[in-house]
């Protein structure tokens, strides 16, 4: 799943390194000006447990950049060295911070996604999908979604082009909930599912005949579960998603046998950061 994006990641890493050193690395140049460049190994170590995903992608991208991966931790939980890469000293020093920043970001996502996924699985909710959202750092959406998916999450929409999700902003701008839904139904391609965001039972049942999925947004946990079961009873094919302020600490309060999807924006935008550091030897 991940390896097909090797060239894309290599291009992004190269671009980010150039952004960080548009006219070179003046510190490294000054320190090593009269010293012959030699090969070294850079170890990136996890000081806390991380959930590694897409190791082949990371290995391939580093190789495409002219670096020589010595070790990439296999997919799964690990602590200690996660990446060892060989290269010229100046190259490693120039790449160090950019590579660290990227790995901290994507492994923080994969680690938190996995924690939530394992919590739900161990609590009897293996059929509830954990979905990430469009709340991603600009320019990082592909990597956030890819690493989340590899850790066990559903990507939800990859972009605005994927499906029709009518949110409160659309409804407020249109001026009428049912009118907005009917307009979307009339004008949408048959290839696009329609989901609508609601905040009450009344709104949910108003749109139920016209949509494929309903998002119960910022509805309290007990109310959300109650509405979800009533919706399933009325229309068994409806997909019920709950969202809004949900995290690993409270996710179990929001799920039952009637909830299909729980979406959490923090997973890709602000997950707890894993502790990674780099050493060159």
Tags for this model:
six-stranded parallel β-sheet; pyridine nucleotide biosynthesis; TIM Barrel; 281 residues; single chain; alpha/beta; 10 helices
Task: Explain what you see.
The protein has 281 residues and is α/β, with parallel strands linked by helices. The protein has two domains: 3-112 and 272-280, Alpha-Beta Complex (Aldehyde Oxidoreductase, domain 3); 121-269, TIM Barrel, CATH 3.20.20. It is built from ten helices and ten strands. It has helices at residues 6-20, 26-31, 55-64, 89-122, 141-150, 168-174, 177-187, 201-207, 221-234, 266-269, and strands spanning 39-52, 68-72, 76-88, 129-131, 164-166, 194-198, 213-217, 239-243, 261-263, 276-280. The strands form two sheets. The protein has a six-stranded parallel sheet. The chain has a four-stranded antiparallel sheet with strand order 2-3-1-10, covered by helices on one side. A hairpin with a 3-residue loop joins β2 (68-72) and β3 (76-88). α1 crosses α3, α1 (6-20) packs across α4 (89-122) and α4 packs across α5. The longest helix is centred in the middle third of the chain and has 34 residues, at 89-122. It starts with 5 loop residues before the first helix and ends with a strand.
């Amino acid at each position: 799943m991940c390896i097909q994006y090797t060239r894309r990641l290599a291009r992004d890493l190269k671009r980010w390194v150039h952004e960080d050193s548009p006219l070179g690395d003046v510190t490294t140049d000054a320190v090593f000006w009269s010293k012959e460049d030699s090969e070294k190994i850079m170890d990136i170590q996890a000081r806390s447990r991380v959930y590694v995903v897409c190791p082949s992608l990371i290995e391939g991208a580093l190789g495409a950049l002219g670096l020589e991966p010595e070790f990439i931790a296999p997919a799964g939980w690990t602590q200690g060295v996660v990446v060892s890469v060989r290269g010229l000293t100046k190259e490693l020093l120039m790449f160090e911070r950019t590579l660290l920043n990227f790995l901290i970001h994507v492994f923080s996502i994969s680690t938190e996604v996995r924690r939530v996924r394992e919590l739900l699985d161990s609590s009897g909710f293996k059929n509830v999908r954990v979905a990430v959202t469009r709340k991603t750092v600009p320019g990082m959406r592909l990597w956030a979604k890819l690493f989340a998916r590899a850790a066990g999450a559903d990507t939800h929409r990859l972009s605005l082009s994927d499906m029709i999700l009518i949110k409160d902003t659309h409804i407020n701008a249109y001026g009428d909930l049912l009118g907005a839904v009917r307009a979307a139904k009339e004008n949408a391609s048959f290839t696009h599912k329609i989901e609508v965001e609601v905040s009450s039972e009344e709104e949910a049942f108003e749109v139920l005949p016209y949509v494929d999925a309903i998002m119960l947004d910022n509805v309290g946990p007990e109310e959300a579960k109650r509405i979800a079961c009533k919706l399933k009873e009325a229309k068994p094919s409806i997909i019920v998603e709950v969202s809004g302020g949900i995290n690993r600490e409270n996710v179990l309060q929001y799920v039952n046998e009637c909830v299909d999807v729980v979406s959490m924006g923090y997973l890709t935008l602000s997950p707890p950061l894993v502790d990674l550091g780099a050493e060159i030897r």
